[in-house]
């Protein structure tokens, strides 16, 4: 109804539509009123605040922009983030929420699932399947632009995630629900061995990490997620049916990346000048392998605690 009125009023006086929409949004809880995507700010955030992840920066910015530019997508956007702890996977999922909705990650249309909290008992997987299907269906009915984030997929009960298959494919009618404008993010450490091995081989060969291409890792990460029995995608129909738009590898971080994390957090605390803390935290991290000391074993995850220790 709002759209029809806007079209009619647009021919008379364009600002009227904007005024009417603002009035509508003051009395409505429609998610379209809170959905305020800013792709430029997302790209800026990715390239300014995500360190050492050229693949993730490019893939996420390109795929999100392409998806949102399509006014009538034939399927949702499905991104699966893979890599070691502390490499930025959760950070990027938060960036998406922050730049898609006016109320950012606190938006009621951004839904986060953690297996140990929401699906803790493997023997109740059938019950969880029904609950998850009902939850997703209900929230898509309320808001077609819903964002669903599934963290710690390596701890997801086997077979649970397959209940999402009908929502992720190209079918035009599923449960009478508009589901094709939704975004799904899966976060996992599964595949970290494959990613880290390639990064190490690349480093030992003297090549820049930016020379690593998505094609070097995409199929290997997908295969690992499918064949690893600790993966939430273990023998999953979601992978069999090729319903994941992109598998996004997150590379291990070197000391210079860790130190950029330290400096960024110090600046947020008003302590940009504490280069002594930057050096101390960078030097206190554990790096692997023993011969070379190339990559932080915990990425940037331990940075906040170490900053507090050295300040």
Automatic annotation (TrEMBL):
Its main location: endoplasmic reticulum. It is found in: Endoplasmic reticulum lumen. Keywords: ATP-binding, Endoplasmic reticulum, Glycoprotein, Nucleotide-binding, Signal. The lineage of its organism: Eukaryota, Metazoa, Chordata, Craniata, Vertebrata. Residues 75-216 form the AAA+ ATPase domain. The keyword Aminoacyl-tRNA synthetase does not apply. The keyword Zinc does not apply. This is Torsin family 2 member A. InterPro entries: AAA+_ATPase, P-loop_NTPase, TOR1A_C, Torsin. Pfam families: TOR1A_C, Torsin. Belongs to the ClpA/ClpB family. Torsin subfamily. One of its GO terms (cellular component) is nuclear envelope. One of its GO terms (molecular function) is ATP binding. Residues 1-18 form the signal peptide. It comes from Seriola lalandi dorsalis.
């Amino acid at each position: 109804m709002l759209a029809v009125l806007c079209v009619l009023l647009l021919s008379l006086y364009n600002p009227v539509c904007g005024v009417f929409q603002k009035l509508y949004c003051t009395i409505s809880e429609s998610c379209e009123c809170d959905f305020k995507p800013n792709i430029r700010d997302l790209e800026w955030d990715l390239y300014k605040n995500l360190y050492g992840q050229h693949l993730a920066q490019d893939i996420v910015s390109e795929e999100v922009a392409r998806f949102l530019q399509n006014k009538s997508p034939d399927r949702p956007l499905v991104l699966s983030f893979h890599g070691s702890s502390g490499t930025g996977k959760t950070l990027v999922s938060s960036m998406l929420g922050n730049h898609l909705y006016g109320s950012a990650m606190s938006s009621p249309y951004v839904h986060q699932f953690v297996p140990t909290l929401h699906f803790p008992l493997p023997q109740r997987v059938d019950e969880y399947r029904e609950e998850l299907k009902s939850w997703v269906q209900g929230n898509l009915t309320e808001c077609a632009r819903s964002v669903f984030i599934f963290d710690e997929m390596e701890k997801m009960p086997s077979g649970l995630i397959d209940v999402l298959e009908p929502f992720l494919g190209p079918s035009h009618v599923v449960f009478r629900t508009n589901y094709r404008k939704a975004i799904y993010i899966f976060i996992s450490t599964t595949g970290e061995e494959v990613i880290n091995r390639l990064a190490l081989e690349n480093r030992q060969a003297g090549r820049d990490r930016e020379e690593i291409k998505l094609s070097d890792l995409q199929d290997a990460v997908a295969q690992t997620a499918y064949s690893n029995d600790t993966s939430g995608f273990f023998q999953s129909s979601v992978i069999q049916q090729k319903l994941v738009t992109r598998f996004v590898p997150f590379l291990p971080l070197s000391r210079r990346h860790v130190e950029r994390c330290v400096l960024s957090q110090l600046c947020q605390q008003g302590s940009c000048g504490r280069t002594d803390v930057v050096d101390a935290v960078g030097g206190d991290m554990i790096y692997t392998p023993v011969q070379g000391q190339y990559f932080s074993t915990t990425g940037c995850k331990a940075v906040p605690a170490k900053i507090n220790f050295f300040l």
